[in-house]
Amino acid sequence: MSKMSRQGRILLCVFAVLLQWQPWSVASATDLVPPKGYSVGFTATTVDGVQTYVCSDGEWIKRGSSADMTAADGTSLGTYWSVYNKETRAIDYFWSIRNSDGTRIESGYPISGLQASVLRSFVAATSAVSQYLAIIKIHRYAGDAAQVAFVALTGTQGGLPPREELCSSPTATADVPFAGNFTFYNQDRQPPANLPQSLTPKANFVQVVFLEGKVMYKFTKSGQWLYRGISATIRDVAGGNNLGKFGTVKKPDASGSKLLLQFTDPNGFFLLGQKVARPIQMSADGFGWQLLKVTTSGGFV
């Protein structure tokens, strides 16, 4: 291993940073697509899907759902289910994906497991349950779904709760049939093509990582929001392994840089950098993409 000493440029893939997505009350199917940097990995269609409701205080409350899934060629792909989380008071979503024969042997696992939470949803039809875009929070095992970062449910049919007058017992439950299509989006291994010129570095590409965190602002006396910094966890993929942290530090280096990438796995190294171009907002609800120049580095790679 060699000590990292060369200064260079690093493309900070802000497309992979999950910031505070805005809840949308009005949307179309095209909005249930992740930002650039993610591509369709595979798709599935639900089979024998049901939405589960529980009667509570004269109202039907959604408590989960389940379905089998088939791949585009009609073969069994796995199972899907969702359950109500009492701690978070939200519904968690799960997928169990059957690994292909080769992946099963290579990974040692028969399935790839995904757990997600919804980022945004909307009602596309008054006769069907909501469609949604979810982000992966936990990967389990390994295999064909290892690079999945987002899952979209579209084309929903049915699944709405029964009539309220049928909710007459506090112990009553109802399983209502529903159908829909899943699109699984993989995290790209290369930066998006056709980046704006100001965000295109004159350097060799090394690696894409996923950042999940928050941007901090302070509301000033003049009535404006002032940017205060950023804090995020570095992962290999959404819901994947924790590789370190990224964020604004209080003490800058000799060049005035205050943005730190600290990698703790596998060997440990750090980079301090600063913006070399004006951030460009690439989507309506996303933080601006940035290009950083590395001014200080250390550790081993």
UniProtKB/TrEMBL annotation:
<protein>
    <submittedName>
        <fullName>Uncharacterized protein</fullName>
    </submittedName>
</protein>
<keyword id="KW-0732">Signal</keyword>
<feature type="signal peptide">
    <location>
        <begin position="1"/>
        <end position="29"/>
    </location>
</feature>
